[in-house]
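Weekly structure sync, notes
Attendees: PL (lead), two postdocs, one rotation student
Agenda item 3: pending single-chain targets
PL asked that the sequence for the first pending target be pasted directly into the notes so everyone works from the same version. It is reproduced below exactly as submitted, 309 residues in total.
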Amino acid sequence: MEVFGGALGGIHPEPTASALRFRHPGRHSEAGASAVEFAIAAPALLLALLGTFQTALLYQARAQLEVATQEAVRAGTLHGAELQSIRDGLARGLTPLYTHGRDMTALAKGYAAAQVAAGQADIRILNPTREAFADFAEQTRDPPQGQWVRAIPVDHLGYRPTSAGSGLHVQDATLLKIQVTYVQPLIVPFINQIGRGVYHIQEGLGQLGVPQFFGIPLRPVIGADGQTRWGISMQAEALMRMQSPVLSDALPQRASLEQPQDGPDAGSPGDGDLQPMPTPGQTLPTMPDPEAPPPDHICNAGTENRPAP
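Predicted structure, written out during the meeting:
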């Protein structure tokens, strides 16, 4: 096929496909390179997107854990700081994380899964201690059962004696403080497989005595279906005043709560920086005034001719 063109009306043949490929030899190679680059970048982008979803779910679980810990400590204050009551309250607080539906069946399944998760959580009672129980416990009536038990009373605290044996005041001995360590499973596809691989790598390095290169606190957790999953360990604490007498079933020893310190805290003065307080008969040293007052002739300048009031 021929076309007419040109300034002089000459006849020029239409370029063929082979001629076009010869003129632009890089078009097909650039298209192939783009496909290869997309094939390389797509898995990384997909992994970043899934990681973002998993991070959002972890933040949601962290916020719900705070609420669940408050529910757990509230249950403990109403039932004498019993560990089982605290665990039941934690399960009620974790139920929204495992409920996927709006009917009663979904709620029952979510509560059952939350009970399994709460049963594997590590719950520590930080306050009161057994030493405080030994100082302030007495025979008192347990309201739920109506029986006389030995417990720390919670009424008329302003009239009860204090003791220094445990280092606590009677007001502090009726404060329930707990610490909950909970494992949130990784549920996003591919992310849970990566978590399992990282966990096994850390376990292998620990058995070989090699320091761990990953700072992610991964732990295995068993779900309600009996399958083992891997998740992120997170902690929360809560404090509330006791509303029932404190029993001694799960109270810890004070020595088990004390953590050894390698040195003084950052920002705190050392023993060499502390000066002893002066005795009553000893006078305090005089410190120089950094800004001495100006001389009298400067302070009284301009007041010589001022009329008397």
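Discussion points:
- The radius of gyration is 37 Å.
- The chain has one domain: 35-252.
Action: rotation student to compare against the earlier draft before next sync.
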